[in-house]
Design a protein that fits this description.
single chain; L-arabinokinase; 21 strands; 653 residues; Rossmann fold; alpha/beta
């Protein structure tokens, strides 16, 4: 029996908010064990997102965190450990740029592998965890150490899906000036062209070989197939989609609903010499939902009042019987300033010789560089770190306060009307005049753009969800009148005056420069708001479809109105999770950008209000924490089996 605590190294992808939140949650569960292990977090995501309470410690090569415990610690080290899918906006993927980033990373892979494996040996690590950076699994194998993949998807499937024939050509963003990339030209549109499968296949194979080195898969809810573990379904991932129904094929759904112990699994990859063969076979286990839990007070009247008061919501709007709350959050993306009122529209692909210019860097790349430089050059005090760690987004939201470039307002007005800009999404037209309504719905003269078809939500009880207008925003019967459109057909942000909206990811000052004001019933959340608490008090949440938001909505029984990410294949697994354990209603992009949210918000609320009311009566039960602790204990048991060479199948499911 081991005398001291185990040392884990946890590699966390810097791609998005969901990876960091669930790594933070599982680290908390591991540190709650007795004796707690030593945990090193390695990531290109900023340190601020990996804990709910932090104390700054000292280290020559990294910053210390104290996470969820009084005397136990997880250590953070910044490292560029994985490529990222380039998303100029929360629901928009730049395929060409993503492939360039991947190729660049793979050219440096061997050098990075040598550095990481040497560091693991010098550290004396016992086990490597990864979510879902393939380099961590490769480095573990090179160092002769066991590795565990903890995720709901892997990036070989995501990159493979860049070959899908689904066209998602969208103005991305539409006539916007990205203020954090001041030297870059405006983007008129991003042409979406599938990457040839023969181009993607060898690149994806390099990623898959890294994942093949992992010895245990703890598959999280909202999963898609993990082809580096299971023999079927195999890559390429576009074959997993039924393009007539625009969902996973029956074969894939059957696989995901199956029992992991029945899967045919690829054999282990042996350690290089002199480490030899691995002592136990590879295994897949179903894991519980990893999610940050809200504070129990979030479900109490006093806790709700206290939270809403910090947002500036007046007391007469605190009663959930009379006031319903919509949370709007597209966290983890870049900020844009609107210059035009027009919503994004789909376009046909253009030849490469005439393709418009694209950004030379992604929001996540900029954020990582800023965070690393900030932490390396200017240590943060504990109070600042604690506030930042409870933030709703990965992004470094410090605004440029230079006199020559003032902070961007949330709300801008011009002759055409007003817009609301929410981080990670294009500007949304405020429906405040008949002309705005009409121009938002009337197709432009000349060629009508070909709106792409976005995969629909899964079927519920055999009936496909319908919300607002059809997929073609101009397909409804037009009512032609001289001075706009009828009031009942006009875009609406909120269903009625009993609703308020809380916008996340912007400063309190946004929307109030130059004499402007926020729309009626709109409020801005503090940047240090703890999102699980805010999600718990919400009646509906509107945002992009990602694991972090989906898991917190499922946990708090909050209905979710989402804007699709059709080129990110993970969303099909998350839709199934919402269909089975929550409430999800899709809002078409054009309706989001027109400010026509009300129908989808009301539909989601009606579907989920009874379950939400029950959850409020029940309160925070600690169920997720207990599931997480059990998962942590079973991971340590598996590691003991690895060390002893014993095979125990009792925990397989």
């Amino acid at each position: 029996m081991r005398s001291g605590p185990y040392t884990f190294v946890y590699y966390c992808s810097g791609h998005g908010y969901g990876h960091a939140t669930r790594v933070s949650a599982f680290v908390c569960h591991l540190l709650s064990l007795e004796p707690p292990p030593v945990i090193h977090i390695v990531s290109s995501a900023p340190i601020q997102v990996f804990a709910d309470s932090v104390a700054l410690g000292g280290s020559s090569s990294s910053l210390s965190l104290i996470i969820c415990a009084k005397t136990t610690a997880a250590l953070y080290r910044y490292a560029d450990i994985d490529p990222v899918i380039v998303q100029p906006l929360a629901y928009c993927v730049d395929r060409q740029k993503s492939v360039e980033v991947l190729k660049s990373f793979l050219r440096k892979k061997d050098r990075k592998l040598c550095e990481e494996s040497q560091w693991l040996r010098e550290l004396g690590a016992d086990c490597i965890l990864s979510d879902a950076a393939f380099l961590g699994c490769l480095a573990a194998n090179q160092a002769g150490l066991p590795s565990v993949l903890i995720t709901n998807f892997s990036f070989d499937s995501v990159y493979s899906y860049l070959s899908t024939s689904l066209i998602d050509s969208v103005t991305c963003p539409s006539n916007l000036d990205p203020y954090t990339l001041q030297t870059q030209p405006d983007i008129e549109r991003l042409s979406d062209i599938p990457i040839p499968i023969e181009t993607m296949a060898p690149l994806v194979e390099e990623i898959s070989r890294g994942y093949r080195c992992a010895d245990l898969l703890l598959r999280l809810p909202g999963a898609i197939p993990i082809p580096s573990f299971t023999v079927s379904p195999s890559l390429p991932s576009p074959a997993w989609i039924d393009y007539m129904l625009r969902t996973f094929t029956d074969e894939v759904v059957g696989h995901l609903n199956g029992t992991p112990c029945e899967y045919a699994i690829h054999p282990s990859i042996s350690f290089p010499s002199p480490h030899g063969r691995k002592p136990i076979p590879r295994e897949v286990r179903q894991a519980p939902l990893l999610v940050r839990s809200p504070n129990p007070s979030a479900y109490t009247s006093e806790g709700r009042r206290r939270l809403l008061s910090t947002i500036g919501v007046p007391p007469h709007l605190h009663d959930p019987v009379h006031t319903k709350i919509l949370i709007v959050s597209f966290g983890g993306q870049i900020f844009y300033r609107p210059k035009s009122r027009s919503p994004s529209t789909s376009v046909t692909p253009v030849p490469s010789s005439t393709a418009p210019k694209t950004l030379t860097g992604s929001a996540s790349e900029i954020s990582r560089k800023k965070s690393h430089e900030l932490l390396r050059e200017r240590p943060l005090d504990p109070e600042t770190l604690t506030a930042a760690l409870r933030s709703s987004s990965l992004s470094d939201r410090k605004q440029n306060t230079s006199p020559s470039r003032p902070p961007r307002p949330l709300l801008t007005r011009n002759r055409a009307g007003s817009q609301l800009t929410i981080p990670g999404a294009p500007p949304m037209s405020l429906p405040n005049s008949p002309m705005t309504h009409r121009s938002a719905r009337t197709p432009p003269t000349g060629n009508i753009p070909a709106f792409n078809f976005v995969p629909p939500s899964p079927l519920r009880n055999g009936i496909e969800r319908k919300s607002g207008w059809d997929d073609d925003p101009f397909s409804m019967d037009e009512v032609h009148i001289e001075n706009g459109i009828p009031e009942e057909a006009a875009p609406r942000l909120l269903p009625d005056e009993s609703w308020i909206a809380v916008v996340c990811g912007v400063s309190k000052e946004w929307g109030r420069e130059n004499g402007e004001e926020l729309p009626d019933n709109f409020y801005v959340a503090p940047r240090d708001v703890y999102m699980p608490d805010l999600t718990a008090v919400a009646d509906v949440l509107l945002g992009k479809l990602g694991y972090g938001t989906v898991s917190e909505c499922v946990d708090s029984c909050t209905p979710f109105v989402y804007v699709s990410r059709p080129l990110f294949i993970e969303e099909h697994g998350l839709r199934l999770l919402l269909d089975n354990q929550g409430v999800g209603v899709e809002l078409a992009r054009v309706l989001y950008e027109m400010g026509d949210w009300a129908n989808a918000v009301e539909e989601a609320w009606l579907k989920g209000r009874d379950t939400k009311a029950k959850k409020r009566r029940e309160g925070e039960t600690g169920k997720r924490k207990e599931e997480g602790r059990k998962m942590a204990r079973e991971l340590l048991d598996w590691l003991e089996q690895w060390k002893s060479g014993r095979v125990d199948t009792s925990s397989r499911s």
